[in-house]
Amino acid sequence: MKLDKAERLHFTTVGDDGVRTIHTWNARVIQKRPGYQVLPSSEKEQGEGLRLCNREKAAPGYVLYSPDHSKKFLLIDLDGEIVHEWEAWTTHFGYLLPNGHLLLDTEFSPDHDLGIVEVDWDGNEIWSCPCQVHHDFQRLDNGNTMALCQREIENPEICPGTLLSTYLYEITPEREVVWEWYSEDHIEELKRLAGTKFPGDNADWTHSNTVQVLPETPASRDPRFKAGNVMVSHRNLDTALVIERETGEIVWTWGPGVLSRQHATIMLDNGHMICFDNGTLRKWSAVWEVEPISGEIVWSYKGDPPSSFFASALSNAQRLPNGNTFICSGSPPDHGRLFEVTPDGEIVWEFQNPYAEYAEGQKIVYRAYKYPPETIEPFLRK
After folding, report:
1. How far is CA 285 from the centre of its chain?
2. pLDDT value at 34 more than 90
3. Cβ pair 316, 264 in contact under 8 A
4. Dist CA 121 CA 354 (whole Å)
5. Which of 128, 215, 325, 342 is 20 to 30 A from residue 21's alpha carbon, by CA?
């Protein structure tokens, strides 16, 4: 199957005054209310931007982020200064490829077709794929792209009415689908492994937000975590899961009873999973590092007091080469707070996104990534 078009489930309209309104599927179908107005601002408010920089303890490098739903990606240094900027279409998030290209989504964009777009260092579009992308994608070593997508279905065994359901496509550079997986086909595994109860009452029943094709790690000695299997985060089920690539079967789950609307469940090179647990229902966030074979939490970061670190949605965490952890606490009440902590929890770098680009002037950031100098500076010297 070759992809040539994609139907929008979320869309953005632009008024005569230039103000954009985001019409999400959830607001439109479930909540029956208008969308969110985007009130752009380029003005920095006093006290925002760089808050802390301990150069002796912070990892060297550069941070990539986009003020959510803006038309720009920013690359900043440890001083919080912009060293490179991409003018892009309205986007949710993106990340850099080893060749200096930027891979981004246009899920909510009013100024580009829906899908995944690749631009070069200078912002020129060099590849795109129309797909119903939702919240994540990954460029694979073979040049293909794994995309996390959504579609409308009906399945009363899951929930009455029209549902928003997750599926995965692996897409070649020629836009051919060579592997696919549909979440609604795997509720029996969720019942057995995670104890999920069906039918539920949430039409956005998974709200999946992360996909990762697993690398070879020490955990690969367990066939559930062998390289090539696929990790997914089902946010609305408080569950991280692993899919066996060959059969499509869910072979591992973790999270119910611990997680609360998590994001960014990622396998690290050491064979552990790192996860940003939003704590939406308990009102404080945490980053967990989990040994997946035993399910044991082996490291965590929480605020002191816990309520001092809280992003109710969005967000991610990244383990850095020096052992520190880079955290994007993206949504209210933290509002786009980017910071780095040592293994013992000391904050050694902190930056507040100063650009209000989202609903009612919020400064939120969906995700952010830190890159070591050797991956960035060759392009800066061009």
Report:
1. 16
2. no
3. yes
4. 24
5. 128
Q: How far, in Å, CA of 352 to CA of 370, rounded? A: 15
* 8 Å CB contact between 327 and 340: yes
Pick from 84, 73, 79: which is nearest to 50 by CA? 79
With a CB cutoff of 8 Å and minimum separation 6, the contacts of 42 are 355
CB 307, CB 18: distance < 8 Å: no
CA angle 284, 287, 293 (to 5 degrees): 130
Structure tokens at 328: 């994007």
Rounded to the nearest angstrom, the gap between the alpha carbon of residue 186 and the centroid of all alpha carbons in its chain is 23
Instruction: Please report the sign of the dihedral spanned by the C-alpha atoms of residue 56, residue 58, residue 59, residue 61.
Output: negative
Peptide bond into 305 cis (omega under 30): yes
Look up the pTM and report it: 0.97
- Asked if 22 contacts 35 with a C-beta cutoff of 8 angstroms, the reply is yes
Is the pLDDT assigned to residue 71 strictly greater than 90? no
Sheet holding 11-14, edge to edge: 11-14, 20-23, 36-38
Tens of pLDDT, residue by residue over 280-322, are: 999 999 999 999 999 999 999 999 999 999 999 999 999 999 9
pLDDT tens digits for range 43-70:
666 668 999 999 999 999 999 999 988 8
Helix boundaries (H) for the chain: 25, 187-194, 373-380
Q: How far apart are CA 83 and CA 273, in angstroms?
A: 32
Q: What percent of the chain is helix, strand and coil (3-state, nearest 5)? A: 10, 40, 45
Cα diameter, the chain: 59
